[in-house]
Amino acid sequence: MSPRIRLPSGWVTFLFTDIEGSTRLARMLGAGYRPVLHEHRRLLRHTLVAADGAELLTEGDSFFVAFADAAAAVAACLAAQRALAGHDWPTPESAPRVRMGLHTGYAEPRDGEYASPEVHRAARIAAAAHGGQVLCSASTVRHAEPLPAGASLLDLGLHQLRGFDDRERLFQVLAPGLEREFPRPRTADTPPHNLPTRATSFVGREVERIELRRLVADHRLVTVLGAGGAGKTRLAVELCAGLVEAYPDGVWFLDVATVTDPGLVPFAVAAAFGLRPEPGRPIMDTLVEYAATRRVLVVLDTCDAQPAATAAVIARLLTGARGVRVLATSRESFGLPGEVVWRIPPLSIDPSPGGGESDAVALLLDRTTAARGGRRPGPGEVVDLRRVVHRLDGLPLAIELAAARLRVLSAGQLAERLADVLGALDAGRDEPDPPRPWSGDPDATVDLRADLPDDGTRSTVERHATMQATVTWSYRTLGPRSARLLRWLAVFAGPVDLAAVEWLLDGDPLGSLSVLVDKSMILAEPSASGCMYRMLDPIRAYAARRLAADGEEQAARDRHVAWSQHVLWRAYFGPDGRPVNLSLYSLDPLAGEFRAALRWSATGGTARDGLRLAAGLDLWWRERGLAREGRLWLFRLYGRIAETGERIPEAELAAAYHMHSLHAGADGEFAEELRFAQRAEAAARQAGDAGLLARVLAGRAAPLVDMGQFVEAEQVCREVIAWARERGVAGDALLAVFSLAELLWRRGALDEAAELLGSARTVEATRPVERGQRSVDMLLGMVALGRGDLVAAHEHLQVALRSRMGHGYHGRACDTVNALAVRCADGGDPLTAARLFGAAQATRARIRSTPGLFGPYWLRWQTELRRVLGDAAFDAGYRAGAELGLEEAAALALAVEHPDLSPASSRFTSSW
User: Which segments constitute the Guanylate cyclase domain (predicted)?
Assistant: First the structure.
């Protein structure tokens, strides 16, 4: 460092930067690394020095810079990241990915350097970041207000930095042009595992757990083999939950069944580790390098879904990383060197040595109690339950199915059916003639050639050896009507009511449905609104294969898409066909069904049906933090259009593009937001529908706001509103009215904003989709806060929050909770304000919602609250709020006393 550089003192913001994967980049580029490093230094030095940063140290690929102004430091980081991203590097792979960490603390320089723990804290924050990411401490956030235009903060929660005993709240700086999605920060309190949470109790398997634990301790690759439903996953997860302390670098779980393409298996394993792909480098190299110096246990479940790809990943990990051990579950072994294959046995059906029930009976007792709503089977039933587990050979999933049957059968009835195998096969048939096992006749009820051994026979044990055989065994008992119902029910993704089943088949299915419930192929689950019918996933997969094999898939799935459109339409329109207030809660239970219908529309159905479904899910996706999912579905539907050449009306394309633009903006993809906004406008103009064009044009301001072009956005809003009024479609420009009101509020034009909103109230009231959002009341509440009118603010915001929570607008409800936090802070209740801010931020982080235009306002008030309360009290209140769910936070906000009822109100002050 030059001695002429004056180092700041007092509250100093320290910045550390370095290149993520610099050693790898240097090896990859060879002689080409030096010019890349030089350009990286030039760009950083140019942006950092321009912001009055004092460069203390440049060593290798690292910078250490001190700033007197925290806001300037944040702006410098954003400028530096944009400069790096926009630079013309020799190749995309040679672009350096720089991580940056900021911390503000009190420090005094001495002899040209700082000797302060604040410097080390900043370095640890930088070390926790990923390439392309800017992290800062809460102290920097407090001192950096206001943030640069367009910038916002994502609260990543409390983290323990390496070498520090306390926990630091870390924030990611968000801004246009910066990458948004990163793995968890690299801190000392990184979770030690990602094992799935167990939804039900684990029963038995003491001997198996001891044996498998010994094998995992002695061997680097242990594969647990067994049929579907044998309990492999549950045993593996239960075992590994007790091994977390033995693996200091973590126990990492991946269900390979969730990976749809073999080439994605190593990427999925990397994601489980918290790793990202590195440009120009195979993902397996990144994986092996990360694991080479660590002691980890990798749990790979359902490996038979992608056996070859999984085997390749395991082989590379074991040969390249000595500290890695792998526990795999599969239906077939890998055949890799050193692999120990352990076949999971059935649950024990013999009484325990201490005289207690066997593991199999204990499991059946536990699940039957749950199936009956907590009512434990009586002593008289236990004898029959023992008979059941003997006939089921102790297979866990068969026992689960038996417990489900006990919803509609007594233990004695079930035991009798299983004791006489032929009688059990004939039970509950809905046809005059009993079904027959396959005997060479292609017209027989079911073709069992794939399930029978060469001699064409099966013992009871063999019949239940696999889940496929168990389901086939049940399927053989079905007559044509019940078998067809089972196949068609496979199109449903989750539980459905009787009306849905009736709609699917366009007839009365009650008789066949009763048969399926009796045979435990469908579970009947009582609910407040009536009985719900659910198919277990293995049975659904079996029925879906039968559906395709019988040539019925197209018809059944098209019918399911039509049903999905029907239930979605009912969310918007009442039985009389009139529009009703949209409640997003009505869509939540059906999310799986809509995804299944969209999947079919994008692969085997029509894209137009998919776009209609997407249009109905537009608000739901954004309010649930699923804007990215909505964008992905739209991209798939565009691909389907290109694949089939299907003709889509311009009006429907315009609506889809407009929705896509809004999703992209909510997801922080601003270039994509602008691109689809332009496409929407072009398609809407082609359609010739003034109302549609007004709705599309009303979204013009959003990309401008996201890019910080507020003056241009305001002008666009005014033009759109005027245009819509001239053409008699003013109501369709309501989004532009709300955007303009927000912009007016932002620059303090409160009277004009209030007047604009007053004229919009009638329009909002006539539009059911917007009515439940109560945007007019929300914005009038913000105007009132700006005026210091706590009475009006309280009343407007409470109305808005009740409506938004009542109709399921969770993203918008977060804004309202934040606004009510301001009302509390301004009204002399800082602790409640801190709790509400913490609750809103926790929900916003959970649903991945950006703070939008109001973000700096919330942050400014939080800074003021911290000043009033002090760090400890503010953090305690904020933390307590973060532990609340959104419903609890809303209840807290709605319980805030009206300003006119407080003791300080003028109503209770004598004027005599």
Answer: 13-126
Query: What does the block give as tokens for 459?
Result: 């013992």
What does the block give as tokens for 184?
């968890």
pLDDT of residue 597 exceeding 80, the answer is yes
Q: Kindly list the distances between the CA atom of residue 796 and the CA atoms of 80, 99, 111, 423, 783, in Å, as whole numbers in the listed order.
A: 43, 43, 58, 68, 10
Short-list 59, 98, 62, 64, CA closest to 78: 98
CB 89 within 8 Å of CB 95: yes
Tell me the C-alpha distance between 269 and 194, whole Å.
12
Fold of 10-174: Alpha-Beta Plaits (3.30.70)
Place of tokens 């060469």: 454
Q: How far apart are alpha carbons 350 and 392 in whole angstroms?
A: 13
d(CA 462, CA 451): 10
Give the DSSP H/E element, type plus range, for residue 533: strand 530-534
The three-point CA angle 348-351-354 to 5° equals 120
Please report, for residues 167, 899, 903, 908, 909, the alpha-carbon distance to residue 912 in angstroms, rounded to integers and kept in the order given: 55, 22, 17, 12, 9
Backbone angles phi, psi at 406, to 5 degrees: -70, 0
pLDDT number for residue 434: 33
Asked if residue 711 lies in contact with residue 749, where contact means CB atoms within 8 angstroms, the answer is no
Local structure of residue 429 (DSSP, 8 states): -
Distance of alpha carbon 218 from alpha carbon 770, whole angstroms: 63
Q: Are 286 and 273 in contact (CB under 8 A)?
A: no
Q: What letter represents residue 459's amino acid? A: S
- Is 206-343 the same fold as 10-174? no
Q: What is the pLDDT of residue 374?
A: 63
Nearest in space to 169 (alpha carbons), one of 104, 108, 106: 104
The Cα–Cα gap between 463 and 472 comes to: 9
User: pTM for the complete prediction?
Assistant: 0.53
Domain ranges of the chain: 10-174, 206-343, 777-789+801-912
Cβ-in-10-Å burial (0-12, 13-18, 19+) of 870 comes to exposed
688: left (phi over 0), alpha (psi -120 to 50) or beta: left
CA distance 444 to 440: 8
Burial label, 807 (beta-carbon count in 10 A; 0-12, 13-18, 19+): buried
Pick the CATH number of 206-343 from 3.40.50.1950, 3.40.50.300, 3.30.470.20, 2.60.120.650: 3.40.50.300
Residue type for position 711: V
Q: Is 55 helix (H, G, I), strand (E, B) or coil?
A: strand
H or E stretch at 136 = strand 134-137
